[in-house]
Amino acid sequence: MSRWGQFQEIADLPERAFCENKYERTLEGGGKGGSQSSQVQIPEWAQEATRQNLAAAKRAAQVGYMPYYGPQIAAFNPTQLAGMQSNIGAAEAFGLIPQGSLTAAQGMPAPTTYAGGFQGYGSGDLYDQALAELQSRRPEQYAAYQNIFG
Question: pTM here?
């Protein structure tokens, strides 16, 4: 049996037997004798691809957060609003709620009309409001955030 017991080759050793040191794996000896090491050579094509990917990632990071200004939730359509208003009208007719005290869209903000007449709600304006509030309350922090992305 070899000095390493049941392990026939370095590849058979458990991961904990190695210490990582950049591109070199060193087998920790423990006891008498020396140690063995092997070099990991990264192929040139992989090195160049890695450099290109890192450069692209750095460029992408400079773009910063890009909020979505399109619709995220559909608004009620006229038929849905009419159905809800009919229910309210029935409740008023039977005295369940006071006349004129409620509308189907009460408490809802006005929807935005998008291309093709589609109506809905989005969060882009809320994001802009939050940034304006940040700029108002904490101008230094806002400036630091803006400076990250040039």
Answer: 0.53
